[in-house]
Amino acid sequence: MKISDLLDIPMLASSRVTAGREGLYRSVYSVNMMDSPDIFEYLKPNELLLTTGYAIKDKPEILTQLVTRMAELGCAGLGIKTKRYLDHIPEEVKEAADRLQFPLLELSLDCALSEALHQLLARIMESRTEEMRYALESHRYFSDILLEGKSLQTILEELARLLSYPVLLVNRSLEPFATSSGFGTAYSSLLQNISNWLPSILHEARSPSIPLPPSSAVPFSYLLQYPIQTDQSQGYLLSFTNQYPVSTLSLLTLEQAANVISFDLLKRQAVKERSRRYKNDFFGDLVDGLISDKQDLIHRGRRYGLSEQRSYYCVVLKKDAPLRSRNSFSSYSPMLPNDSIGGRTASMKEDLYELVKGEAKASDFSFILFSKNDAVVMLLPVHTLEEAALDEHQLPERLLASRLQQMIHSLWSQHEVSLSVGVSNTADELSQLPRAYQEALDALQTGLHSQQQRYVQFYHVKELSDLLRMLPQEDLQEFIKETFAHLLFLEDKERGELLKTLRSFLDNHCHIADTAKQLYLHRNTVIYRLDKCEQLTGRSLRLPANSLRFRAAFLMEELLN
Fold first, then answer.
1. Which residue intervals define the domain CdaR GGDEF-like in the entry (predicted)?
2. What is the pLDDT of residues 107-137, one digit of tens each?
3. Strand partners, 236
4. Which burial class, exposed, middle or buried, applies to 163 when counting CB atoms under 10 A from its CB (0-12, 13-18, 19+)?
């Protein structure tokens, strides 16, 4: 209730607003009386204060401090009874009230403060009771719409009718989820124009009313917003208005509509999560090889678009860990979430799933998507990629790699989500999907060993270098040190010459003549250097085991560098 709504009570009939008329829109939640000098410690926001001025009759200058302090705290106003202890309200107090737009009431001599307090509180209670009744009726009205099986669109239409303003429902990314019929192109363009600053404004907004930038396209000055919450933020209910301040009943209507929409979205979310859980459980069992009955697999898979007549690529997408935590594969497990911060994990997995789903649709993929531990898994029908590749005159694998690379680039540039991708060979039968899933995981791990981020890695049979990357760096360094032994402690020039000669000797299949020819050295020089390598390392180059050991050590050194 505003101060302007309280001025017609009987006890204030002879009173007048002597200053701060511009602040009569201030809301009043409570009324208090003051006749002690320490009232400063007991002031509350939205409180109307009544006083005879007895405590400050000898120090009227305190009134200016009181008005200033009350305005700072967001109090509703100050009523002063004159002609008893204060003959008049000083001009400097009125000037302060006008400057601060703080209502200053001059109460008449016949105004009994106790009776005025009683009447004011009674009027406020009547108003609050009416607001509660209206809120309950609004909540019941919007709830009945849903109970009748009608959609959120109907709620928005009714809300727009009650408010006489267009309304829309947006998700967390401020993308329209549903709009009233009065929400036209002009409003959509306005949202696009203010999209740069609107997210931060909405997240930090303390008031439902947000001023809009001037626009000739939209004849409204303010945006009303109410957050839509379930177990997490779902978005905002928005409306346009020219009212300021906005009427309490309009805010109550908007608030109750937002509450009902939140309940409906919570119900939808529960149904969606249950369905998603069944899907994830089925595909989790499938790729883990736990479904042995072929007919059961075909029957259950058909519900999710899985066909026994098609071949599939298995694609595993996983969030990148910080590079500093990826020094060795021993510290990494695809089964452990990167972001396991209490209850936030499920929410982040859901967000990741939705982001990947949106980007996959934008990339024109035909896909089956599910979550597995902390990764998102896609099954891509091979025939759709082959058809698209034929149209674009590309190889299917190259087209797949290109689209996946575009996907992870878009996720990084637009959402700052860093993902890497592992891709399997084709699974020609549904029973081969467990093998394909493991291949995609292996491909993902291969890229991880190379200290990469945002990569697309196809599966291939592991080379020796891939196997060596699986070992901790400390073990590789220890092997190199033990293999080359004292050779590593020579001066840089001599060490380089000996290692170069030894490497060339091994590359030329231990043929001294070919080694000398490649290095432009005399045969005896090569023999001398190789003998010195044997002495320093304590290993004979004639033994096949030592030859293999030196080759492995050189390869490890390349990997470490």
1. 292-445
2. 888 888 888 899 999 998 988 888 888 889 8
3. 170, 227
4. buried
Same domain for 223 and 85: no
User: In 3-state terms, what secondary structure has residue 287?
Assistant: helix
Same domain, 264 and 306: no
CA 175 to CA 178: how far, in whole Å?
9
Angle at 519 between CA 513 and CA 525, to 5 degrees: 65
CA 441/CA 422 separation, integer angstroms: 6
Whole-number pLDDT of residue 234? 82
Pairing of strands 77-81, 104-107: parallel
CA angle 534, 538, 542 (to 5 degrees): 50
Which tokens in the block code for residue 367?
A: 């896909």
Q: DSSP string covering 452-471, please?
A: -SS-EEE--PPPHHHHHHTS
Backbone angles phi, psi at 376, to 5 degrees: -110, 135
What percent of the chain has a predicted confidence (pLDDT) above 90?
23
533 pLDDT higher than 80:
yes
Digit-coded pLDDT (tens) for 18-66: 999 998 888 898 999 887 767 777 888 999 999 888 877 777 778 888 8
- The answer to whether residue 111 sits within a structural domain is yes
pLDDT tens, residue by residue, 332-341? 333 333 443 3
- The residues, ordered by sequence, that sit 6+ positions from 473 with a Cβ below 8 Å of its Cβ are 327, 328, 560
Residue owning tokens 């305005």: 71
Distance CA 443, CA 340 (A): 24
Bridge partners, 421 (sequence order): 317, 456
Report the alpha-carbon distance of residue 159 to residue 530 in Å, rounded. Answer: 89
Does position 244 have pLDDT exceeding 70, yes or no? yes
Q: Which residue type, as a one-letter code, is found at position 349? A: K
Residue 189 binned pLDDT confidence (cut-offs 50, 70, 90): low
* Residue in 36, 12, 7 with CA at minimum distance from that of residue 110: 12
Residues 433 and 298 in one domain: yes
The answer to whether the beta carbons of residues 3 and 76 sit under 8 Å apart is yes
- Rounded-to-integer distance, Cα 57 and Cα 416, Å: 64
Q: Given the structure tokens 């009718």, which residue do they identify?
A: 161
The two tokens of residue 484 are 């080359």
CA distance 42 to 35: 12
* β-strand pairing of 209-211 with 176-179: unpaired
Is 233 in a helix, a strand, or coil?
Answer: strand
What digits encode the pLDDT tens for the residues 442-482? 888 887 776 678 889 888 755 676 667 777 888 888 998 99
The Cα 135–Cα 141 span in angstroms is: 10
Residue 539 is assigned to a structural domain of this protein = yes
The whole domain housing 523 covers: 473-560
**In the β-sheet with 47-51, what is the strand arrangement from edge to edge?**
16-19, 104-107, 77-81, 47-51, 30-34
